Amino acid sequence: MNIILYLVNFIIHIDEHLGTILRTYGTETYLFIFLIIFCETGLVIMPFLPGDSLIFAAGAFAAMNSLNVFVLYFVLLIAAFLGDTVNYHIGKKLSNKIENLENRKIIKKEHFDKTQEFFNRHGGKSIVLARFMPILRTFVPFVAGSGKMDYIKFLKYNLFGSILWVTIFTAAGFFFGNISFVKERFSLVIILVIALSLLPILITYIVNKLKNNKASNIK
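RESULT FIELD:
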């Protein structure tokens, strides 16, 4: 419980924590950012790590010249691309053992099933779409690997999705993160970013719920 509270606090006040890390470790902050994004996208058991919020905050610090925006951009891009690539190979490697993993609760069956449904509905495009959706962002490349999606096709979607995701959130943080209105309400902005990221998942859930209820009433 304490770990969950710490993570929530870290994400909501990520500007303060990232500032502390910068003052303490200097250029090693790039490594910290790389590892967080890589683990969030590359390790299926770590969907709780910050993604959108961290990139947005890092972009804001780049605007203050605390981070070099070009170095930051390529660090984020490489971390995002490699993360999904590793996750794909993990899914491919464990494709015959997924049931056992679910039984051991390493992977929540509910998350896996919903991601599988999302992937089946959108196909390769889900690699790009999931970039902007917490939890799904971590599970979709794993599902793509376990479903033996063509690797070259996966790499194309992965590269495009990585560029789109990193560019949008880095640019948003760089151009808007240091506006006085945003700076004074940074925590609220981060909550809004997270809420907007979760909105497609919520809408999909509501739509599916309504469809199921309608189907039940017809029966």
